[in-house]
Specification:
The protein is built from six helices and five strands, in the order H-H-E-E-E-E-H-H-E-H-H. It has 241 residues and is mainly alpha-helical. It is globular and about 60 Å long.
Length: 241
Amino acid sequence: MRAGTMVPLWLRRSAVALLVRIARGGVTRYGLPRPRYRLLCGPLAVSDSLVTGLRRGEIVVKPAIDRFERDRVRFRDGSTEQVDVVIYCTGYKISFPFLRESLIAARGGEIPLYHRVVPPALPGLYFIGLVQPIGAMMPVAEIQSQWVADLLEGRAVPPPEPEMNREISAYRAATARRYARSGGYAIHVDFLPYLGDPQGARGRRQARQGPPGAGRRSGSWFKQTGFAQRDGAGFPAHYDG
């Protein structure tokens, strides 16, 4: 797993694309559009049932909606369909109605958090799972929770506020470069680098650093379980070939 955190993005992209081709083939032949961004540089549609549904004709791919006409939907290619229900899959808006907006707020879908957990100016407040990983969420939330437990028990101490703000700025710049073409990149994290840093805070907690990357305990967790998606989460069904 340690090597997985050091493999450059282009090589990881090539390896995953090859695996997807072997497992699924080219999905554009089923009518799915070719993504406008490169693999691992935007959201993935991870589904074991999507391609099966397309093959069986249970799912029909249509272009964007142009307008509604009584009980019909007109699409941008000029075709129409009679429909009973329209479901808007709009995603989520990050908000904290239980906190004063002057205290902390998500602007542009982003909230400034040191290693996606700690708001620098609000000691004692932590956010778990407020990330969108390319990979499984639960291992990420587990590692974050272990780090927060260390902070609460005094086994780890976050760095000074200016240092935390520098890390946040560096994260913003890096994610903007990587995900700019896909949009909505504000809370993306890369699964393995986020979990697998062998020099992470849990492994050097006496040094006052604080990323939730895997330390001693999380490293042994990885050895026990392997990659979190290996047992049935499926392969991405939408990729750039």
